[in-house]
Amino acid sequence: MKKYPQLDIRVVEMKTSDIKKALETGEIDAGIVANLAGMEESSQTSLFYEQFYAYVARENTLSKSEVTRTSDLNGEPL
To answer: Using alpha carbons only, how large is the chain's radius of gyration in Å?
Structure first.
């Protein structure tokens, strides 16, 4: 802030769809999102990748898979 006192930075929590709309209308200049679906026209930079662990009951069909993708969890109660 000392170097750029005229810069106005605010951190606000928004849903991805709201971030997309705000970027399109110029309400905001940048956003951080987890899911990039539907935002391919925007300039993007990956900040980091994080491993995802799923713990499922033995009775669940997902327990038979060695690898579980996040898309495999669609419709599953978390």
So the answer is: 18
Q: What is the pLDDT of residues 6-64, one digit of tens each?
A: 988 888 999 888 988 998 899 998 888 876 677 677 777 778 878 878 888 899 888 88
Q: Give the long-range contacts of residues 38-42, CB within 8 A, separation 24 or more.
A: none
pTM beyond cutoff 0.85: no
Question: Would you say 70 and 52 are in contact if contact means Cβ atoms under 8 Å apart?
Answer: yes
> Quick one: which of 7, 51, 47 has its CA closest to 31?
47
Residue pair 59/42 in contact by the 8 Å Cβ criterion:
no
Tokens linked to 33: 């999102």
Other CB atoms within a 10 A radius of the CB of residue 21 amount to 13
Q: How far apart are CA 23 and CA 35, in angstroms?
A: 15
